[in-house]
Amino acid sequence: QQQVKQSPQSLIVQKGGIPIINCAYENTAFDYFPWYQQFPGKGPALLIAIRPDVSEKKEGRFTISFNKSAKQFSLHIMDSQPGDSATYFCAARGYGGSQGNLIFGKGTKLSVKP
Amino acid sequence: EAQVTQNPRYLITVTGKKLTVTCSQNMNHEYMSWYRQDPGLGLRQIYYSMNVEVTDKGDVPEGYKVSRKEKRNFPLILESPSPNQTSLYFCATLSAGSTEAFFGQGTRLTVV
Prior knowledge:
The complex is a heterodimer. By secondary structure, chain A is mainly beta. Chain A is built from no helices and 11 strands. The model of chain A has no long low-confidence stretch (mean pLDDT 91). Chain B is globular, with a radius of gyration of 13 Å.
């Protein structure tokens, strides 16, 4: 069953807008929360990741906000560009013996209009 | 250059004809996984492997088999493919202690 729930399924913004993608997890046995970006015809690639003991992480125009008590985390893209149009997946990594087990959300298809 | 290589990239086959999709990595990563990607369903894990000879089922293992006899290879086997296994398949590797999974180029499988 889906352990990481992602919304919205699709998102359209104008250039310069700030799209926000939300994820929620159910299992507390996760120790890392990465976001992956996928362009058409390619495999997903790591964009940014956060540990649950940090509430926010910023890398360039991409920011993850993390709310441990609510078991929610979100991706914000500042000053979005048409080149950011892609599918974004949130994920959660199990800890200990399940470190190699990455569980993905269903993905959000983002379109940034010029 | 770090690589995860899947073969074939595209495959059209008939129902019931056994097939194998290969995955090979050159990064000495402990963990390897297979995912299938379907519209609206995202990436669903089929099987994953923690190391040689250690595998476990993911969310959608039915109809699939895997083996991990060597660290670098993790083939996905469909003993008797059915049309509902038509999908885009990705192999991924992950190093212990890392969150950066490396994905192959994908294999688009069509079962008619």
